[in-house]
Amino acid sequence: MSKSIQTLAQLVELKDQIRRHNHQYHVLDNPLIPDAEYDRLMQQLLVVEQSKPDWITADSPSKRVGASPLLAFDQVQHQVPMLSLNNVFDSEALLNFDRRIKERLKKQVGTDISLPITYTCEPKLDGIAVSLQYEQGLLVRGATRGDGNTGEDITTNLRTLNTVPLKLLGNQWPERLDVRGEVYMTQSGFNTLNQKLLERGEKTYVNPRNTAAGSLRQLDCRITANRPLLLCVYGIGQVQGWQKIPKNHYDILQQLQQWGFRTNQETRRVADAKACLDYYDQLARQRDQLDYEIDGVVFKVDNLQQQQQLGSVARAPRWAIAHKFPAQEELTQLLKVEFQVGRTGTITPVARLQPVKVGGVTVSNATLHNMDEIKRLGLREGDSVLVRRAGDVIPKVVRVIIERRLHDNQAIIAPDCCPVCYGPVEQITGEVALRCINGSSCATQIKQAVHHFASRKAMDINGMGGKLIATLVDQKLISTAADLYNLTQKQLASLERMGDKSANNIINALQASKQTQLDRFLFALGIPEVGESTARSLVHYYGKLEPIMMASEAALKHVNDVGAVVATKITQFFADPHNRDMIASLQRAGLGWPEYEPQKQLQTDLPLQGKVYVITGSLKSCKRDTLKARLQTLGGKVSNNISQRTDCLIVGQKAGSKLNKAQAMDITIWNEETVVAQLQSLESGQ
Ligand code: IVH
User: Fold this and answer.
1) What is the topology classification, in CATH, of domain 8-63?
2) Which CATH class is domain 439-513?
3) Does the Cβ of 252 fall within 6 Å of ligand 1?
4) 518-588: what CATH class?
5) pLDDT recorded at residue 610
6) What is the Cα–Cα distance from 214 to 336, expressed in whole angstroms?
7) What distance, in Å, lies between the first and last C-alpha atoms of the chain?
8) pLDDT for 187-198, tens place per residue?
9) Which of 330, 337, 417, 597 has CA 20 to 30 A from 48's CA?
């Protein structure tokens, strides 16, 4: 979105613009544009200043880091400035950086240019840079970066983070030590916090970085203490009286770890620039699985003597570089909002966007959840919006850039009828979503319900894909899943692009699907809130279909996994005559399954009934599967991912992001010894 700079006046305007964004980002914690857009403006300034050196002024944003500190906090002078990093965006620029380093070292100290440089590679955490000063091993001051020379004294706030050591471990620390690192918030911590703010009707945060910044610079440290903030350190500033100074950056990190700091687990030392590129690729692939945001990787010349020989330029060291990932937030335009109907009739607004690349993927649609979300965002058609795609999450519109609203854009109005079947819509009590209540005759709902019914984890009907189902519904050959079993070979063969052979295959697949299992059948029915696991629990508990269909809400709540909401959904589903008819037709068509002995008694008496466990890291004393089986035998459930429902995380060695996530969510954590002891006592019935 940046215009090319031809005149001095345009340059002045560009610098003003960057200054305004600096202020919004660093002082107000309220960025108006995505980081990628900011990087482009800054890059543009650097390019112009490089080609026209006499246009450079001392107050240019290219000569400063960050922004002036807030006056609300005392100021702290950094003895060693807190520098920024230069960025590269592709491999070629990284290799050029490596070449420049070698040339400089050759010129300065005659180093052989053919010798590779060893680098330490670290993720570039997207948080707030802090400096922590220790005297005789005790934390005396903590500060933000501010403008790089003067930061804000946020000692009281930093002391509330339990990842900030108040006293260093061990004993051979320097007399004075200034540790540098990043305070950040995990993705899960961010989601939970925003959820809480939303429930209290308070303003939510845009992203974890912005939230971490806001949380850290609270004047009331009790607020900071309640926020899931973490510190990860990546270097040092001023040091005095250090007896055994390491020779390499990597060894400094190891030492910091021994003194009780967290360093990033993904940190690696590599032999040359090519290995840096491999590291970048590997981390880019891992990025979506991490529970914290990284916006790139940082490569640092490992040898401290070489670092010194290379020195720094105005804003950044020559010995380090940030290799940025594709941005996860971008600006684009909201073209219009459309309303989609889901399998159970829920009507969801979807943003149709001017296509834009976010995180390396072209995004042209984003979810808007419901009308409340549209209201909260203050969204209107035609608005400039900030779109975010983090992790494997579906793209989201995170905010409207009101400053860019040029016209009185059109407000978005909730539909008063179903956009597909034009049937009536209603707002279910206790829910924000609108719903089309015409389920049995709304074409979209029928298509999705049949698609779900035929899917692999449900009835697994080979060849029954979305396109064929849409044709069958549109041509009125089916109106429920049960109608599938009345289709004839002739009907199928007469469809466009369907030969005799394909039609035969489908008839055979339908026939083969008739012998199934009850849990698959239950799941296939598409009862709201009943996924595979709940379907299995219901079958385990009741053994047969009929008692499930007749069960009361109160009785259903005894089943593992079934709470009040799910129990209501189940009874409502089976009370609907349309659903009962469909089940009867399916049984008439010959669908069948083996029946089991109900496990009612056994289930409710188990000591770990209803408890959800997650296991992470490698275990010493037994195999993960064995531990899982022992927990399950006692009624526990073992899940792969941490969520609100997790009761306990069991950690083995080298536990990764799950541990951070569990800590951030205040979930009970057991080590291997604890769980083994607990299991032994439960198994022996004590
Ligand atoms: S080193 C002298 N290492 O990125 C080098 N910075 O754009 C100073 N950051 O202010 C920084 N992860 O807030 C370094 N592993 C890492 C980092 C990192 C995140 C941030 C830090 C810094 C900014 C520079």
Assistant:
1) Helix Hairpins (1.10.287)
2) mainly alpha
3) no
4) mainly alpha
5) 76
6) 32
7) 69
8) 889 989 988 888
9) 330
**What digits encode the pLDDT tens for the residues 388-408?**
987 666 899 999 998 888 878
CA–centroid distance for 623 within its chain: 30
User: Rounded CA gap, 2 and 43, in Å?
Assistant: 10
CATH number for the region 612-683 comes to 3.40.50.10190
Q: Is the CB of 125 under 6 A from ligand 1?
A: yes
Residue with CA at minimum distance from ligand 1 atom 23: 84
* DSSP H helices in 496-655: 500-513, 518-524, 532-542, 545-550, 553-556, 564-575, 577-588, 600-605, 624-633
Place of tokens 């319900």: 449
Ligand 1 pocket: which of 82, 84, 183, 269 to mutate (most atoms within 8 A of CB): 84
Contact indicator for 187, 259 with CB cutoff of 8 Å? no
Q: For the domain bounded by 329-411, which CATH number is listed?
A: 2.40.50.140
CA separation, residue 610 to residues 397, 559, 560, 663 (Å)? 36, 9, 6, 21
Distance 173 CA to ligand 1 centre (A): 23
CATH 1.10.150.20, the chain: domain bounds: 439-513, 518-588
Q: How many A from CA of 124 to the centre of ligand 1?
A: 6
468, containing H or E segment: helix 466-474
**Annotation says 124 is catalytic:** yes
87-324: CATH topology is D-amino Acid Aminotransferase; Chain A, domain 1 (3.30.470)
Provide the pLDDT for residue 29.
Answer: 67
